[in-house]
């Protein structure tokens, strides 16, 4: 394993908690359900989807599912792309906008 892989794994080690994984995957499922049920209402509640927010939202859902089921990519680049730090931040931001 390369040194970069080890550093990225150490960076993600504090988030390797079962309850946090469960909370994140539940939050992702709730966001998907709200979005799929009534997309226009969801977009209105968060102040509409800009192109960047739409892409970040889809990515955050995917990354949260990867993190939530406990999958750990081996290659450092995939570990960064599916980083739970960023996906939790984006989902938290969208959740805040929705329920604000």
UniProtKB/TrEMBL annotation:
Transmembrane spans: 20-37, 49-70, 76-99
Please report the name of this protein according to its UniProt entry: Cyd operon protein YbgE
Q: Which superkingdom?
A: Bacteria
Keyword line? Membrane, Transmembrane, Transmembrane helix
Give a single Pfam family match: Cyd_oper_YbgE
The record, for InterPro entries, names: Cyd_oper_YbgE
| Biological source species | Vibrio tapetis subsp. tapetis
